[in-house]
Write a structure and sequence with these properties.
Pfam family, one: Rhodanese
Strand content: 5-15%
Order of helices and strands: HEEEEEHEHEHEHEHHEHEHEHEHEHH
Helix content: 25-40%
Shape: globular
Domain Rhodanese: 148-253, 302-416
Radius of gyration: 25 Å
CATH topology of the largest domain: Oxidized Rhodanese, domain 1
Number of strands: 14
Region (Disordered): 92-115
Number of domains: 3
Distance between the termini: 65 Å
Protein name: Sulfurtransferase
Keywords: Repeat, Transferase
Number of helices: 13
Structural class: alpha/beta
CATH class of the largest domain: Alpha Beta
CATH superfamily of the largest domain: Rhodanese-like domain
Length: 424
């Protein structure tokens, strides 16, 4: 294994250790005897406080003393402890040459986050390779936003603790939500959202990649939530954890950040109870044009100011299949278009190519110029449609947050069905 590959893999493992998902690095400069054209570097292993300590070169500093910046990382259960025991030698180009390690100087304990160069930015969704490439240099915050329908009988938090992207924190859409309503996982207040994501270690200048275990599903909901509260540097991992795993990237089950998701939910409850929470570094700025209410949708039946998409399956849209939650009527909001969220995904759970996405919306009769609002059962799968439209350049798509869970709970809201047509 080359030294650069060794450094990259160890850093990926280290990303999951600290509380906020940031590698714990203690830096020092060691003088090495070396030749100007070819330096012989090694990775060494020692014991620190009873735990394995790996000292690896992470950058080259050109100075009068020809120093080498190294990083010493001490943690139990180190992923690569048994892999980095032999001596690794490599010829490293001079600083500035192609293939050279960057000139970093001593690594600070806190590294200031900086923006991704414009040419390196992705649009809407990112690939595992993209995330791997920029993960360390730009301190990306990864979020596991997995969530399941009530009938699936799965616990996303327990699954997260067993396997997740290194350094990822867990975002529970059921607890980082408005707890004053009976409707499921509705948007929380600005203060509650800010307190929760601050607890997760996220700041206003953080770069965020969200994923889930289905490919693209509930990750789109969390992506939209960050957009609603004014955060722009947020993407969804295309294909989610399954594609991350399938492309050979590491998955871990450890990290001191594992409990932060639970603590973020506690912060939300404290905010709604009027209790003081620790001042965070994330300031939420609500974007009202990305959210629609039941009154907006009801008045639109007559005014037709916007196009309404229903992201549920066709049978539920028609009213021929019961809703997952008891007590809700079948059918759809009058005038809405049926575009199931699965129609914009391929079998692996990734977004379709842009040309195919455009065809899906065109064939459904959607006008790309007019405003769009998306509904579903409870505001989750509707965000997948918003994500797909965002990829096509339509960035002002709003979500009817209450969706069918709210609409069908009222006896006086109009409902249409296609039961007769379906049975004909």
């Amino acid at each position: 294994m080359s030294l650069s590959k060794c450094v990259q893999k160890l850093a990926m493992a280290a990303a999951s250790w600290p509380r906020l998902g940031v590698p714990f690095l203690s830096a020092r400069t060691e003088a090495l005897s070396c030749r100007p054209k070819s330096w012989s570097l090694s990775a060494s292993r020692s014991i620190c406080n009873g735990f394995p300590r790996i000292t690896i070169p992470v950058g080259v500093q050109q100075s009068a003393g020809w120093g080498l910046t190294t990083a010493s990382v001490a943690r139990p259960s180190l992923l690569l402890c048994n892999q980095i025991q032999s001596r690794h030698s490599t010829s490293i180009p001079s600083v500035g040459q192609a293939g050279a390690l960057p000139s970093m100087g001593p690594v600070p304990r806190k590294r200031e986050e900086r923006p991704i160069p414009q040419e390196a930015e992705a649009k809407t969704v990112v690939t595992p390779a993209w995330l791997q490439e920029i993960f360390f240099e730009f301190r990306v915050r990864t979020i596991d936003a997995s969530w399941y329908l009530p009938g699936e009988n799965r616990n996303p938090y327990e699954e997260y603790k067993k396997e997740h992207v290194p350094g990822a924190v867990f975002f529970n859409i059921d607890t980082i939500a408005d707890i004053t309503t009976d409707l499921p996982h509705m948007l929380p207040s600005e203060a509650a959202f800010a307190a929760a994501v601050s607890k997760l270690g996220i700041k206003n200048d953080s770069l965020i990649v969200v994923y889930d275990t289905k490919g693209i599903f509930s990750a789109a909901r969390v992506w939209w939530m960050f957009k609603v509260f004014g955060h722009q540097k947020v993407w969804v991992l295309d294909g989610g954890l399954p594609k991350w795993r399938a492309t050979g990237h590491p998955i871990v089950s450890h990290g001191t950040q594992l409990e932060l998701g639970q603590e973020a939910g506690d912060c939300v409850r404290m905010v709604y109870a009027g209790q003081k929470v620790e001042e965070g570094k994330f300031q939420a700025k609500f974007q009202p044009h990305l959210v629609r209410s039941i009154d907006d949708v009801e008045s639109n039946i007559d005014t037709k100011k916007f196009q309404l998409i229903d992201a549920r399956g066709k049978a539920r849209f028609d009213g021929t299949e019961p809703e997952p939650s008891d007590g809700h009527r079948g059918g759809h909001i009058p005038g809405s278009l049926c575009i199931p969220y699965t129609a914009v995904l391929d079998p692996s759970g990734s977004l379709l190519p842009e040309e195919e996405l455009a065809a899906v919306f065109s064939n459904a009769g959607l006008d790309p110029v007019k405003p769009v609002v998306v509904s579903c059962r409870s505001g989750v799968s509707s965000c997948v449609i918003a994500l797909a439209l965002h990829r096509l350049g339509k960035e002002d798509v709003a979500i009817y947050d209450g969706s069918w869970a709210e609409w069908s709970s009222f006896s006086d809201t109009p409902v249409e069905t296609n039961v007769a047509a379906a049975s004909a």
